[in-house]
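FORM 7B: Structural annotation worksheet

SECTION A. Query
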Amino acid sequence: MFTRLTAAGLLALALAAPSQARELRVSSFEPAQGFYSAKILQPWIDEVNAKLSKSAQLRLYPGSILGAPPAQAELVKKGVADIALVVPTYTPGLFPLSGVVELPGLVKTGAMGADILNTLQEEGALDAEYADYKVIALFTTPAYRFFLTGDPVDDPAQLAGMKLRSPSKFGSELFEMAGASGVGIPAPQVYENLERGVVSGAAWVMDAYRTFRLDEVAPSISTTGFMAQPMSILMNRRSYDSLSEADRAAIDAMSGRATADWIAGVVDATDAEIEAAFRDEGKVTFTEPGAGKAALWQEAFAAAPELWIEEQPDPAAAAAALARAHEVAGP
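SECTION B. Predicted structure
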């Protein structure tokens, strides 16, 4: 009897004991087949998992399962997600200096945007805003194009009176400088709002244009590089610290500038591939700015740098970050 009770007790203890294996939740607000879920996060997860111990494996939770797009940074901070794809400008004021890449004309490619943000991070300019996180990667979109339901534009004056889907609060303020109005619309609802005429266009990137089939409702693309969007992959600091030394090393090896550069390469290559495919198909009209038009776009948004600096909690730090960003971007 004693032996049987002891065995039963041991079994009960074993069942009650917490497992040493731990699933690390990676949150994406995109569906599993979305660009960042399928081409960035899942390949990264697969490669990291091969380096991590079996007791700490990453798993993607796509489609906003863990929370809505603007909530991703908070999900990571609270530990609801261990890692998440975060758009810093979705939470105004939380990552202020990361928004420097939104300045019109500063960022043309994902490679340039990644270089700017990683330089600022490596030099300590972004330490305060990412203090609560383990930064996996900082990167950006390529420069946004204008997707329009009507005639294309190659002059900022042609935006006057339009309602456009805006990528951020600052994006809406930029539209106002050109006489347009910015409307905040979640990504899955952009198609419907374009179709119904609620907005006349959207400033966005080519992967979104294809993912959400915007060619069906916005067949005019103006290639004027407008602004870029900062992006990040962030990890809960406690989750990172709780890992074994070997597992932390595996995460470290897949973090930082090298990872951001890889992401930027995928972003830029995909952007170019999608544009080429739509050009070859011939159903979408692409309009490039005419001779002398670049100066008009610069003039229209000439007040943007000063406005952005004034809106930051530390204007002096913002001015320094913008100056450094221009140095990195070059002429």
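SECTION C. Observations
The first helix runs from residue 2 to 16. The first strand starts at residue 22 and ends at 27.

SECTION D. Sign-off
Analyst initials: ____
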